[in-house]
Amino acid sequence: MSKPLTAPADQRTVAARRLRDLRAAYLSDLGGLGAVSTAEHSLIKRATSLEVQLELIELQWLEAGQASPESLDLFSRVAGNLRRLLTEIGLERRPRDITPSLASYLASPSPNGVARE
Fold it and tell me: Does 4 fall in a domain?
């Protein structure tokens, strides 16, 4: 993966941490960084950015005690775009192969404590 053109000045903000956490979760759901294409990774980046923006809008609503018609319209449009991106990359988790190799299986202790051969 190539580096982005720019990075936010402060990666320690709540929004930046949330963005990182969401990207890591989405990548994990899709089998890890090695299991996604560059295009899928780009869609994940866009989807997580939209999701964080939706959460920021929700926070504004909580602080204001209500949502304006304009913010509801924006929220609805962004949520629809997020749904389309998530549909494109897949909404369900992809299982990761956790089957041990023969060598690691043979090296591990058996349940009854007897060495495997």
Answer: no
